[in-house]
Write a structure and sequence with these properties.
This protein has about 150 residues and is an all-alpha fold. About 75% of the residues lie in helices and about 0% in strands.
């Protein structure tokens, strides 16, 4: 069974994955000319960013508990909501996909691996690693692409 973060990307429409990747690449281009303090601030923001798993872990029980509460207060038909939500959660655990995932991905919610890619690329831009191209090449587009290639390989 493959890693959940990979399975999320596998079950996400290619244009959505491309949009998320392009947005990250654009941010890296912007940060390639920023100071170390600005890069550090962005890395700290990434440390606080919720990934897709965290969203699902919060949303599923929130909707399930809402359904249980409404079932107690308003009628048994509300008990269908926790059943549906929990079946989505099981589906996600087994297959790496569930219906809410598509909506979250279209809203730009990223996997932990996607967030970590940006974090490590920023650290490389800042010069934290040896063996990655912190200074060369000087062209910022080539530099960001070289760093992303090194991180992904």
């Amino acid at each position: 069974m493959s890693d959940t973060r990979d399975r999320v990307r596998e079950h996400t429409a290619q244009e959505v994955n491309a949009s998320i990747d392009d947005a990250m690449r654009d941010r890296l281009f912007r940060y390639s000319t920023c100071s170390d303090q600005e890069i550090t601030a962005r890395i700290e923001a990434l440390d606080r960013e919720w990934d897709i798993e965290r969203y699902l872990e919060v949303l599923a029980p929130t909707f399930a508990l809402t359904g249980v509460l409404m079932g107690l207060l308003r009628g048994r038909k509300w008990l269908l909501l926790p059943g549906v939500v929990l079946s989505f959660l099981v589906q996600h655990a087994v297959h790496g996909w569930c219906p809410p995932l598509a909506a979250l991905r279209r809203m730009g919610v990223r996997t932990r691996r996607e967030i970590d890619e940006e974090r490590y690329a920023l650290k490389a831009l800042r010069g934290d690693f040896s063996g990655l191209p912190p200074d060369a090449p000087r062209n910022r587009i080539t530099r960001v692409d070289a760093i992303l290639d090194a991180i992904r390989s």
